[in-house]
Amino acid sequence: MILKKKYGERAENFSNKAARELLSLIDRKKTNLSLALDVTTKREFLEIADKAGPYICLLKTHIDILVDFDQDLIEQLKELKTKHDFMIFEDRKFADIGNTVKHQYSKGIYKISEWADITNAHPLPGDGIVSGLKEVGLSLGRGLLLLAEMSSKGSLATGTYTEAAIEMARRHKDFVIGFIAGRKLISDDDKDDFIVMSPGVGLDVSMDGLGQQYRTPRNVILESGSDIIIVGRGIYGSGKDIAVEAQRYRDAGWEAYSQRLMN
Ligand code: S5P
């Protein structure tokens, strides 16, 4: 799949602050790797984030799985963000009506909108979910991804559902910066530009026993035209050297992108 523009050059296609920052960061740091940091203790979380930090553009969190979450974790996460120059994506997968998600985004224990540059939502409830999140996030310079597809076996997010997600994103271009999907969803010649992030990426295994399906960085970036690989257990799975694996995925992702530019 041919690539007409480099990441950094695409920044001007977006009015959204988080999208512009992310695309520039990817170019500056030369990495299209996002780490999915699904561990359940603060100690592991901070240790892995510090080790993988130099190799990633985006740290993806599931903040509600931490058993010992506290405000200090957020403070330390922000320090790591500055130290290593990455952005933060809370994978909250909002899925309720606008009024509810507005509170879930800004209030409660986690106050996601205060520290997460990017979050995501299922388009399932209709446009109200985007409007609700936008009321909170836009003025803070945040960006939203819509889950247009999922990597898990039997996902219902296909066909007309995926098409409807794209149309929803087009109606909210100021706040919706892209998609969770397995492939590029709209052409380079389209008037709109969206960042595609793909989970379900692994170099060593093809599934996890609970429905997750893995493809390689090459499949995802070069052959399917996605922009960012999201890798979790491939990097911090048992016995792995975090820095070595993070570098390996960073290199594989960047190599796939470089080949796409040359094609
Ligand atoms: O369709 C999806 C969407 C997401 S955001 N499939 C996914 O796996 N994810 C997330 O990506 C999932 O919640 C997890 O945090 C990460 C994949 O982790 P891994 O350990 O399987 O690489």
Topology:
Layout lengths: L6 H4 L6 H13 L3 E5 L4 H11 L5 E4 L9 H14 L2 E8 L3 H9 L5 H4 L2 E4 L6 H10 L5 E5 L11 H13 L4 E5 L14 E4 L18 H7 L4 E4 L1 H4 L5 H21 L1
Parallel strand pairs: 1-2, 1-8, 2-3, 3-4, 4-5, 5-6, 6-7, 7-8
Bound molecules: 6-sulfanyluridine-5'-phosphate (S5P).
6-sulfanyluridine-5'-phosphate binds next to strand 8 and helix 10.
Kindly describe this structure.
This protein is of the alpha/beta class and 263 residues long. It has one domain: Alpha-Beta Barrel (TIM Barrel). 42% of the residues lie in helices and 15% in strands. It has helices at 7-10, 17-29, 42-52, 71-84, 98-106, 112-115, 128-137, 159-171, 217-223, 233-236, 242-262, and strands spanning 33-37, 58-61, 87-94, 118-121, 143-147, 176-180, 195-198, 228-231. An 8-stranded parallel beta barrel has the order 1-2-3-4-5-6-7-8, surrounded by 7 helices. Strand 5 (143-147), helix 8 (159-171) and strand 6 form a beta-alpha-beta unit. The protein is globular, with a radius of gyration of 17 Å. The mean pLDDT is 97. Residues 36, 38, 62, 91, 150-152, 180, 199-200, 208, 212, 230-234 line the site of 6-sulfanyluridine-5'-phosphate.
Name its key features:
263 residues; TIM Barrel; 15% strand; binds 6-sulfanyluridine-5'-phosphate; EC 4.1.1.23; orotidine-5'-phosphate decarboxylase activity
Summarize the structure.
42% of the residues lie in helices and 15% in strands.
Radius of gyration: 17 Å
Fraction in helix: 40-55%
The major β-sheet equals: 8 strands, parallel, barrel
CATH superfamily: Aldolase class I
CATH architecture: Alpha-Beta Barrel
Shape: globular
Let me know the average pLDDT: 97
Family: Belongs to the OMP decarboxylase family.
Protein name: Orotidine 5'-phosphate decarboxylase
Keywords: Decarboxylase, Lyase, Pyrimidine biosynthesis
Enzyme class: lyase
